[in-house]
């Protein structure tokens, strides 16, 4: 029986992990070896990612695995999308990468549509939903102000590719992470030359486009010596964490929708080809790259970020809640007392999230939450109702009936929100795996190693190793009425 070990670096917007995955005869085992924070770094009025800290934590993860004295086949990195780093002609990184939560792109999207390319043309060329922080608008902003790094860089690397470069010295652009940028043509699966020309960015700035499963290069000799480990290849897995997570949906067939739940919620369906038409443009639906030639037709929804920022604020005030306490507080609060629209711009990165919620409720003529339990319940109910709103769009777009909703990612552990989501959508909810990005990362490495042959075989392995928790819809009439009230509120 063949047994192989793989290292997955799974980096989210708030934390990162080193996972050791072992695949043996169809049995998958996962071990979290290290966990580390990933925080926004605020400097001079801007928000950055501390990529050097991330790099150090990747090395610590390698060292921790090396201490186990087991043979490792390869390593792979997945992260959030859109953000990037610049590499100078001498090979060094040019400063810290901006975070997508930096306010510098506020209002730039509208300027771009006016001065560079109309919104409908940009969508026709890329099939990507218009979001202020997309790479195309970040580059437009930097170009406008004559940013030194952009003007003098030899290369631009998206975050997982930049980290792979630091580990190997080799530069590539992995397809799924590049597809989040709103710079790629979804049919040709290459950068759109006309768009880059109007933007004033050379295509040579980007590394060679590679598909998930290709080898970036071998771990650099100096890192191997420092970590006291044998050289291993670094694999370009599905570098966008959502692409790795969707590859780990334990499903058969196409009659499902998925919700990758975490700091962000990403809801969608899987298709064989891009869907770019008047409906997807009107609903601002995105066509991002998936595994084995698939397209992730999805929509970004602000997810548990809102709760995370409330908890951070309350923690500073001396209140640190466990998950059971959050559920208990929410359970005691009045149902459907008020609603928020999770994707309202005021929730993007406020200095005080509870105050932003109060302000929203005041602005929409609602009673403001007072207790922490009321805030928590409002967030969970509003997220569930927003999920229904978006799911109704995909019901219209899907060529297949949507019979169930798979919730994957860290948010799948939130049993209360899972039940609310089943109630709101009227669909059975299958929750898990929580470690979907890491599992997808590991099985894509296994595919590169010849242990797995296809996306469906990956999903069959996951189905055999993971038992999702089932949540059935309850109190349908109450939730239907609440949905009507939610729509009336948010349409204001």
Description:
This protein has 492 residues and is of the alpha/beta class. It is 40% helix and 21% strand. The chain is built from 19 helices and 21 strands. The strands form six sheets. Strands 17-18-16-15-19-20-21 form a seven-stranded mixed beta sheet, with helices on both faces. A six-stranded mixed beta sheet has the order 3-2-1-6-14-13, with helices on both faces. Strand 15 and strand 16 (264-271) form a beta hairpin. The longest helix is centred in the last third of the chain and has 26 residues, at 372-397. The mean pLDDT is 96.
In short:
It contains 19 helices and 21 strands. It has helices at residues 51-66, 108-115, 119-126, 135-144, 148-152, 159-168, 175-178, 193-199, 221-227, 241-247, 278-282, 305-316, 323-332, 353-363, 372-397, 415-425, 436-448, 455-465, 476-490; strands at residues 3-11, 15-24, 27-37, 40-43, 46-49, 74-78, 84-87, 155-158, 172-174, 184-185, 190-191, 208-210, 214-218, 233-236, 257-261, 264-271, 286-289, 295-302, 405-408, 429-431, 469-471.
Task: Name some characteristics of this structure.
six-stranded mixed β-sheet, alpha/beta, 40% helix, 492 residues, globular, seven-stranded mixed β-sheet
Our Rg estimate from Cα atoms comes to: 22 Å
Unreliable residue stretches:
none
Strand share of the residues? 15-25%
Lateral strand order in the biggest sheet: 17-18-16-15-19-20-21
Helix amount: 25-40%
The biggest sheet, with number of strands, parallel, antiparallel or mixed sense and barrel status, is:
7 strands, mixed
Please report the distance between the alpha carbons of the first and last residues: 61 Å
Mean pLDDT: 96
**Please, how many helices?**
19
Form type: globular
Annotation, overall tally of beta strands: 21
The computed structural class is: alpha/beta
